[in-house]
Structure prediction request, 82 residues.
Amino acid sequence: MTNEFVHPPTGDIRPVTTTHRSVKILMIGQPEDVEITIARLYQCGFCRVEDWSRPLPFSQIQEATTKEPGEVMRIYKRSMTL
Prediction:
């Protein structure tokens, strides 16, 4: 895995707005694998463990992922090495 990030062009000037927007990251997998992945993301400085929701049963995922107008979804799938 590489640590390459996409950076906006240097001449890209965007107006600052006060609108609060967020990105939702959805993680689906076996409970132990989800917890391991969250811990690894924390170790990399990507997120705080306490910022994740409590584990939800698969039947509640649709309710937890209510979409706002204009939103899109992308899914990142990665095999885990145990």
Observations:
- DSSP finds two helices and no strands in the chain.
- Residues 26-56 form one domain.
